[in-house]
Write a structure and sequence with these properties.
Layout lengths: L6 E8 L2 H9 L10 E10 L12 E11 L2 H10 L1 H7 L2 E13 L19 E9 L4 H16 L4 E9 L3 E8 L2 H9 L9 H11 L3 E16 L12
Antiparallel strand pairs: 1-3, 1-4, 2-3, 2-6, 4-8, 5-7, 5-8, 6-7
């Protein structure tokens, strides 16, 4: 893994509409935030909600996924910038990288895996995609059942989606164990219609929905704050 990508964060907070829009239009960069490698700012979505629901674009809910050079850089961002203070008022998770599928340019130098794998340990999954605009109807058709599958899985303690129009979409989920997440992906979960994820992946392989797509897996390191009155989403904490 690149020496510059040592720690990752996922933060979500309630902000003003103007703060959210400013972050979407001019996201933080390595040139504006010392110690930041790359950041993705999006508005959160409720997994499985109706396509035309206001839950599909929550302009007062900002999600920020980022790669950092150090924890010191994270602390400086949270304490010294307005965006960081907004994220700090909500909830965020600090993570170390474990594994990558697919590739997006911003994270292309991450290895496929680090070798760490404890099936019983908590794990975090983050997917990021750049959609092909003509494929959006197909993506919605096959993606929404997968959203519901993740949202309703008893081993997913937190499951969120996010969007930045017109092409970027992401999902984020915290799992009680790597085994539970792997079971979901392979269609072995003890839930109704467990095959939904596997079916959607076959459809994606038949004709890709995306220009770029990656799924990243992380080891949770520390959890901070609360979201919608809850905390302690990671089992070991």
């Amino acid at each position: 893994m690149s020496e510059r990508m040592r720690i990752f964060t996922l933060g979500i907070a309630r902000t003003s509409v103007s703060r959210t829009l400013a972050s979407l239009i001019n996201p933080p960069t390595s040139g504006t935030i010392p110690g930041l490698v790359h950041a993705e700012c999006m508005t959160s979505m409720r997994l499985g909600s109706s396509i035309f629901s206001p839950h599909r674009m929550q302009l007062r809910h900002l999600m920020m996924f980022a790669a950092w050079e150090s924890e010191e850089a994270i602390e400086d961002f949270l304490s010294k910038t307005r965006l960081g203070q907004a994220i700090g008022s909500g909830w965020h998770l600090r993570m170390s990288f474990l594994r990558r599928w697919g590739s997006i340019r911003a994270f292309a130098d991450l290895p496929q895996e680090t070798g760490e794998c404890d099936p019983s340990a908590p794990v975090v999954a983050y997917t990021l995609a750049r959609l092909r605009i003509p494929e959006v109807p197909r993506f919605i058709r096959w993606g929404k059942p997968v959203e519901e599958l993740v949202r309703d899985n008893p081993d997913a303690t937190l499951a969120l989606a996010a969007i930045r129009y017109p092409q970027s979409v992401a999902t984020f989920s915290v799992w009680n164990s790597q085994q539970a997440m792997t079971d979901m992906v392979q269609g072995h979960s003890n839930v109704d219609r467990p095959e939904r994820h596997a079916i959607a992946m076959k459809e994606r392989d038949r004709r890709n929905f995306h220009h770029e797509f990656t799924t990243l897996r992380f080891k949770p390191l520390s959890e901070h704050g609360s979201w919608e009155g809850r905390s302690g989403f990671v089992r070991q904490f």
